[in-house]
Design brief:
heterodimer, A: alpha/beta, Alpha-Beta Plaits, 5 domains, globular, B: alpha/beta, Glutaredoxin, Rossmann fold, Ubiquitin-like (UB roll), 5-stranded mixed β-sheet
Chain lengths: 909, 617
Amino acid sequence: MVISNMPEITVRINGRELTGRPSQTVLELALENGIEIPNLCHDPRLVPTGSCRLCLVDVEGQRAPVAACSFEIAPQMVVKTETEEIRAIRRSFRELLFYEHTGVCTTCDENGDCKLQRYGYEYQLADEVFAAGQVAEHRNNYTTGNAALRYDPGKCIRCGRCIRICQEVQMDHALTFKERAGDVEVTTAFDMPLNDSTCELCGQCISTCPTGALYERAALGKGQCKDLKRTRTTCVYCGVGCQIDLNINTAKNEIVRVTSPIGCVPNDGNLCVKGRFGMEFVNSSKRLTSPLIKRNGEFHEATWEEAIDYVAVRLNEIKAAHGPDSIGGLSSAKCTNEENYVFQKFIRTAVGTNNVDHCARLCHASTVAGLARAFGSGAMTNSIDELPGAGCIFVIGSNTTEAHPVIGLKIKEAVVNNGAILIVADPRSIDLVQYAKLHLAQKPGSDVALINAMMNVILTENLCDMDYINERTENFDAAAAIIKDFTPEMAAEITTVDADAIRRAARIFAQASSSSIIYSMGITQHTTGTENVLSLANLAMITGNVGIESAGVNPLRGQNNVQGACDLGALPNVYPGYQSVEDPAINSKFQQAWGMDLSGKKGLTVVEMMHAIEEEKIRALYIMGENPALSDPNLNRTRKALEDIDFLVCQDIFLSETAEYADVVFPSVCFAEKDGTFTNTDRRVQRVRKAVASPGSARDDWQIICQVATKMGQPMSYDSPSDIMDEIASVSPIYGGISFDRIDTLGLQWPCPDKDHPGTRYLHKGKFTRGKGKFHPVEYKYPAERPGKKYPFVLSTGRQLYQFHTGTMTRKSAVINQVSPTGYVEIRTEDAKKLNIADGDSVEVISHRGKVTTLAKVTDNIESGWLFMPFHFCEGPANMLTIDALDPIAKIPEYKVCAANIRKAGGRN
Amino acid sequence: MDRLSSTSDFHAWHKQLMAELDNNIPLVMLCGGIGCKAMGSEDVHRAFVQAIDKLGLGDKVQLKLTGCHGFCEKGPVVVVLPDKFFYPGVKPENVEDILQQTVIGGKPIEDLQYIDPASGNKITYEQDVPFYAGQQRNVFRNNGKIDPVEIADYVQHEGYSAFVKVLQAHSPEEVVKIVTDSGLRGRGGGGFPTGLKWNFCRQTPSDQKYLICNADEGDPGAFMDRSILEGTPHAVLEGMLIAGYAIGAECGFIYVRTEYPLAVSNTKAALECVRQKGLLGENILGSGFSFEIEIREGAGAFVCGEETALIASIEGHRGMPKPRPPFPAVKGYMGKPTNINNVETFANIPLIMLKGSEWYNAIGTEKSKGTKIFALAGKVKNTGLVEVPMGITLREIIYDIGGGILDDREFKAAQLGGPSGGCIPAEHLDSEIDYDNVQQIGAIMGSGGLIVMDEDTCMVDVARYFLEFVQSESCGKCTPCRVGTKKMLQILQDICGGRAELKALDQLDQLAGNIKKGALCGLGQTAPNPVMSTLRHFHKEYTEHIEERKCSAGVCRELIGYSIDAVKCVGCGACLKACPSGAITGERKEPHVIDKVVCTKCGICNSVCKFDAVDVR
């Protein structure tokens, strides 16, 4: 946070006059100014605890030395950090630590990164103080048998950082000390195995451990820290965009562990289970290493030349016979900005159609459509680091702590540490509910009624910001006319949420200093997805919460680069930078830039392409890094289409469920093997860097595309991803000022129109992108399918913490598979009882479209009559059941609501 | 009268209670403190109830099971009013005699009278017992006089008058000033001026403030807080009410050890009484002042007596200290300003409010005012709780009140202040005891644990004992306390075991100094005190252990051996029978012999020998 007008405090440390801020500690000020004070229990993310006592310094006027880590500076304070007395005490305490410490640096993985080791060396401690030779007693502890962590009490210096980060940052409260004095050890409550505790396997404890006491179990013996090379890059999982360091054993070309630097943006060194333990897929033996061509139903390895020739010839044939619009391309939210740019350019130029889309269609198409209509820009209005400053946070349809765990931390920080009021609207009792003042468990698909009713209260009780509405928005009256009818009582009938709770939520939202809306798939994946988004935009505008700090409408993007894939025009209606293909001026700009005629007709979306295959309107699909055979709704229909299509090309790192249907498969390289950029959910363009060599003959996606395009007769070539970014900047004004040079250490947030622009922290300051914010009157509509006699349950699908999407990456991780081995369906206890289903029973879930067998998870976190299934598991794919009804505007399928039934497997019905 | 809703209600009730008081009816006060209970006072109580019934004395005598009288050594203690006949060690079979001869007859029973160990004289009245005569029982004035729980009894003895007076006549600022002027210092051990502490908390702006009574008495041997809570819990509640009013708190906690069941139940019962009377809760006596008190039971960690650890424990966390600053007065319970005082401190407050700061200020020394309760224990004839004015000498406590050293042996040292305190040698027997003097001598006032040691005590072993205690009670948070005290303990064990060299003393000295300067909380900072004070006053004993491998006091097992003096031994066979390891042989009426290989040095032979024939060296 940038805080100006703060009084400055002048302090002398070792004779140097330094200036600090109120409530800054001596240690912080010293470190900031390059004055080394030894410390072991200090982590800037944590409340100072003063336990290691190494940072003792002399402060004039204090009767004894004070711990610099917890002692706040005061005007005219005189500090000495290296007096004879201080050095003697420090030496003594270091000796004590070594006296307790068993374990030897030569066999320790932390060697090279261990603070204790460094401090021992610095004071050249005598050999006799080392407890060397003593081998720690191999007793079982809370990490015994755990695939993720190893705790070695012999190396533990009892600084408590692991426990504190688990409590203060992660707020998991999984760890604690046990025993007293010399017997103190870290453990879980009642010494239960870690995976049975409240632990989420975030590994934050490892990240903060100053010695090798806590370490990734899988990394043990794979290379000491001193020999590992660190490459800074961006995490490949969700849209938070955490900065990570891949620690590489270069001799073995292997990622040994994942770390993250404290202080980095946006995650401040925090990671979730996937980021820390989900990188095993990179080294997987199942990686594709050679191009494959299917002949007579079987894949055969082929040379690159052969495969590229084959693809170019086939695509050109189909284009010639059926026209360019008979070919479609699915780009990838997992790939870099540069690759997405090249891919859409390839489809629009070499193929000559706007039939290009990607999985954003399945997650935030309604956001892009809705927010563009209301504000003029379809992205998070505010930044992740503004969340802790919010007065009220309204989370609706986002299971943030599971789907975007590191943003979840920010919300918890806002509530627990800063007193923000949290309102959660979600049909399930998600984790955040325990931090919430109010939980509104609206019936799936009833969001518009709920939001309209909140606005009804705000209008009736005169809590709206009329100045803001008059000055900055338009069409308010039309929206107000509809809102008038949505009394809380009426909404209560539709949503099953108590009318008074709606009133309280509305008042809190309207009266807070700033209110930030956080939403995700629970809002977007409906046939009314765009309207849901428009309602939220209305709610934010009616209370004047757009265009100010710590407020706004904030869709959390699900994939590492789904924001970027949208930004770079992997969409059928816009060129890079959300420039309409149907706008003649824009069209001619791109024709000039790319040197050829371009189609001015918008193309087909993901699910539309699948449906067009049935009508033989699409005859060839080029899929880069997507897995529709598991991720699309109504899988039976999707898979039939993939089977029926004339020609299918897949470009992937694994032979995915979709690639199985392909005619040609190109092996590509994964994020750890390439350079480029990802744009995270708060519009920050961040670097991706090559850390390891790719397997076999796998190639960069952009290179494969360029080669195919060139072979098809449309030459495309670039020197490097940086080169591609320069072209992006030249055609896309929101990326106009972005280059690899500028984002080397810290990413930039678009819009960043020119080289001197610092990037944009929050949007619509002073003026909306579209000029005035526009209210849209939104009526409530029922979901496409409602439960009935045969299918009495409402089924929603979604994510869980450990697995990611179709599991192609996370399910290669032993750590994740240990804690989350199988799929399941959540059902409320009383419903399960009626159907004689017990927790862990094998059950069949059935809908109009299909049937899957999975395990029952009996819980009270879900209301009666509702079912929930994660969609990550190919052996019980939830999307066999989901409906492919689409939002008429955004064409997003209604994953969140379909009618279903459930019964014990093997039984008759 | 039920719930009181105004101060005039209170005065009316008080008047009514005083009118009901009949001082002419004899009153039997039987001590119901834990010490006397352990000696059988419950049986004695039952016997009294039955005998009164049997003799038909129902309306001629009152019986009260009171709080602790302090003279635990001699329990169960009975005092008969109005004359204050004093009977120690009363048994159920004595009860009828006491009723008939003393209560009805008004005469002492010679056989039950207390014999002063110093003079051998029989003593009839309580005030003449030297153990009491030297005391100034202010805080304890009602302990042993009233029913601990019954609020009416307390009110009849000026109870809650101070609080009502404060509500009627003083602003919170005035209350803080009176306490400041009184010179009262924290009785928990630190001796921080109470008024100043209250003022810090009062001055910190906040929407919510808290008050905590620290009843986590953990020093081995100290039990005055327990005694107060058992005997006069109302005094503590009244002190808390006044403090809450003064600092602006509406919520208070009493953090008490769960190992003090009687203190817990009496305090709970007292709380219930006060609440019912309307002296606790919303808008007390219509004054606008609201206050609630909750009891939180601690699980017995010594470190939870430290303010910040105590707060952590109340918050539901593991009881571990936090760095100060921020002090609790600024950021305490739930991050809000919190004032913590000890039980004895709170119990002093009503007196100060009733009698004024000048009265209080007149007691004690220049910088330490009022009385202090000491838990007198060890090798002294009269053990128990003694309340004395600040400035009294050790000699007065040990010899006048305590009756001198057991078996009239030589005084060697007194350990004052528990594990955080130090050993005071004979040369300081005549020093005045107050906060500052004690610190100069190398001990601390602490909570007032006073352990008397005679010539048979090994001072190295004493240091080892206290360090062992601290080491096992260290929460393990900070390096110097967790590892440093462990290392010190090992050095001491080596010295006691004859395995150390002289340089160990330097090591010990340096470590002690560093730990004192560098530990996180008071527990760690004071942990080296027993070692430092014994090193200072009894350095020779240490060198003797190291250089001569000798323990003159005959305590350190590895340095001593047992043998039988053939001249003194009469061959009675007592030691042979008692020896648990079969190390002693010998014919009857012939001198016995100890096999040094088999002997485990348990010392039982020495204790059973009636002829002083066992040599220890």
